[in-house]
Design brief:
The chain is an alpha+beta fold and about 210 residues long. The chain has 2 domains: about 5-80, Glutaredoxin (3-Layer(aba) Sandwich); about 85-195, Glutathione S-transferase Yfyf (Class Pi), Chain A, domain 2, CATH 1.20.1050. It contains 8 helices and 4 strands, in the order βαβββααααααα. It has a 4-stranded mixed sheet with strand order 2-1-3-4, with helices on one face. Helix 3 (about 85-115) runs parallel beside helix 5. The chain is globular. The two termini are about 25 Å apart. The protein binds glutathione (GSH). Glutathione (GSH) binds near residues 12, 13, 35, 40 and 52.
Length: about 210
């Protein structure tokens, strides 16, 4: 049995952890907790995650929730090219992860919920989300005008975490061609073999 257990489904933020696990090439299992069936509120799951949300991981006896924190932990634990090499790079990876959650995620979620007909947000809310995303997109564009990736020249957990959040934009039919560096960066992140494997698992889950 694999030591790392990821709770959630492919149609949830657990897919972020699957992408990371695939990048690291580590053994893992996905334990289904389907929020669309309310399973996060059943069977004592809240003993693992008092928020009753997914994802959560169990790594041996260690339990952790919050998707981007989980990815930062896995990168640090397993090392390799995705892990920040210095305290400063690690701080920047945390900075970018918190930035993605506070500056971009809420509006990106509104747009993917609308695009996938999960929530019928009003046109006013949708156009507000479009407008609000211009600022964070401009921030990424500015940073990437001087370097290929968020921490410099290599793809790291910072890119993976931010791409998990901004990566829903093309799937929400948001035109980001006005941010060409960001568009190219996102494409390079999403085209990584580990992300492609995750995408195939998500597409298969969507068919069921
Ligand atoms: N900030 C959390 C958000 C977790 C979250 O909202 N997960 C959703 C699924 S993607 C969930 O569990 N929703 C169920 C609910 O809110 O009851 C993270 O990134 O892990």
């Amino acid at each position: 049995m694999s030591e790392l257990i990821i709770y959630g489904t492919m149609l949830s933020r657990a897919a972020r952890i699957i992408w990371m696990a695939e990048e690291l090439g580590i053994d893992y299992s996905l334990e289904s907790v389907d929020v669309h069936k309310g399973e996060q509120r059943e069977g004592g799951y809240d003993a693992l995650n008092p928020n009753a949300k997914v994802p959560t991981i169990k790594d041996g006896d260690f339990i952790l929730w919050e998707s981007l924190a989980i990815n930062l932990y896995l990168a640090k634990k397993h090392g390799g090219p995705l892990a920040p090499k210095t305290a400063e790079d690690e701080a920047h990876a945390v900075q970018w992860s918190m930035w993605a959650l506070t500056e971009a995620e809420d509006n990106a979620v509104i747009l993917i919920q609308k695009a996938l007909s999960i929530v019928d947000h009003s046109e006013e809310k949708v156009s507000g989300a479009h407008e609000a995303l211009k600022k964070p997109l401009a921030v990424v564009e500015k940073v990437l005008s001087g370097q290929d990736y968020l921490l410099g020249s290599e793809f790291t957990v910072a890119d993976l975490n931010v791409a998990c959040v901004l990566g829903t934009l093309p799937r929400s039919n948001v035109d980001i061609s006005g941010y060409p560096k960001t568009e190219a960066w996102l494409k390079s992140c999403v085209e990584r073999p580990a992300s492609q494997r995750m995408g195939k698992m998500r597409a298969a889950a969507m068919k069921h």
